[in-house]
């Protein structure tokens, strides 16, 4: 067990030396973007859906070379080696006497699991700022809008609110749905349940087939942001302490899970058939 996990951990880090590629298929969009909407290049700190392990690890290193990288693995019938659904990169904060000198960062990357076709389908970054680097709430909201485009669920405009939740919904081509995506988001937001647990939600989907997604959820890309602020003790502005941004490509995930599940079911049927044949070959009991 440990040897295999070590192998996969080394393989992730050594991904920078491996030319792995993806052929993961995308489902056709069930929701349509407004006419004339241009596709947005979607990423979280440079990590994009569809990236190979090699590309994702290079982007992660570029974001923060101090991150400690830990992969997680899952064992499934039909596969000779464990599958790797997730890689986590983490760095703890560096505390000073009265302040945070260096922020804390966690970056979770979710991969499709077909061997030699692994590709990023989700990424989540949780960043807590150093005291001297906390940006204003307004500048942060403007930066998010500039990067991800028109929001499907905009932040609460109430100035008393110090935590702002925002969501963007895109079709499979990365074209923003804008306000059209609000209801779709409420229906499909559960795709973000895969973050934070080694993608145990994927285990359930593989084993049971999962709850069939609504048609509009099969091909969407969802970005969420949680902006957590406080009043700057040295001034009057609201400054951001923690910024959490996640991105999930539902179409890429669903195509991968269905392919993995098909291989597992075929392996189970082959095992059962072999066992049945062995039973049939046994002679009758002594009477």
Describe this entry's structure for a reader.
This protein has 287 residues and is of the alpha+beta class. The protein has one domain. It is built from 6 helices and 9 strands; from the N terminus they run H-H-E-E-E-E-E-E-H-E-H-H-E-E-H. A hairpin with a 4-residue loop joins strand 3 and strand 4 (100-102). Helix 5 packs across helix 6. The protein is elongated, with a radius of gyration of 22 Å. The termini are far apart.
In short:
The chain has 287 residues and is an alpha+beta fold.
- Sheet of most strands: 7 strands, antiparallel
Report mean pLDDT, rounded to a whole number.
86
Give the overall form: elongated
- The proportion of residues in beta strands is 15-25%
| C-alpha end-to-end distance | 46 Å
Query: Low-confidence spans: pLDDT under 50, at least 5 residues?
Result: 1-10, 13-29
Structural class: alpha+beta
Please state how the strands of the largest beta sheet are arranged side by side. Answer: 1-2-5-6-9-8-7
The ordered string of helix (H) and strand (E) elements is: HHEEEEEEHEHHEEH
Q: Helix proportion of residues, in percent?
A: 25-40%
Number of domains: 1
Number of helices: 6
Number of strands: 9
Instruction: Please state the oligomeric state of the protein chains shown.
Output: single chain
Computed over alpha carbons, the radius of gyration is: 22 Å
């Amino acid at each position: 067990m440990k040897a295999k996990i070590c192998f996969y951990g080394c393989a992730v880090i050594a991904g920078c030396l491996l030319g792995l590629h993806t052929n993961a298929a995308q489902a056709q969009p069930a929701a349509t973007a407004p006419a004339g909407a241009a596709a947005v290049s979607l990423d979280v700190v440079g990590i994009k859906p569809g990236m190979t392990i090699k590309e994702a690890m290079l982007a992660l290193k570029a974001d923060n070379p101090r991150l400690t990288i830990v992969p997680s693995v899952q064992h499934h019938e039909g596969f000779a080696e464990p599958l790797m659904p997730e890689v986590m990169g983490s760095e703890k904060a560096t505390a000073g006497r009265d302040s945070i000198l260096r922020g804390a960062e966690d970056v979770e990357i979710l991969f499709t699991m077909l061997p030699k076709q692994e590709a990023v389908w989700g990424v989540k970054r949780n960043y807590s700022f150093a005291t001297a680097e906390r940006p204003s709430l307004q500048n942060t909201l403007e930066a998010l809008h500039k990067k991800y485009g028109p929001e499907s669920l905009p932040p609460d405009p109430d100035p008393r609110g110090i935590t702002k939740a925002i969501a963007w919904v895109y079709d499979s081509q990365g074209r923003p749905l804008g306000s059209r995506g609000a209801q779709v988001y409420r229906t499909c937001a559960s795709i973000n349940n895969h973050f934070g647990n080694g993608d145990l939600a994927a285990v359930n989907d593989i084993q049971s087939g999962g709850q069939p997604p609504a048609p509009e959820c099969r091909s969407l890309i969802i970005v969420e942001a949680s902006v957590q602020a406080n009043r700057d003790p040295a001034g009057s502005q609201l400054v951001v302490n923690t910024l959490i941004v996640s991105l999930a490509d539902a179409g890429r995930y669903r195509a991968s899970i269905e392919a993995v599940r098909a291989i597992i079911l075929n392996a189970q049927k082959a095992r059962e058939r072999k066992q049945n044949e062995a039973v049939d070959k046994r002679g009758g009991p002594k009477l």
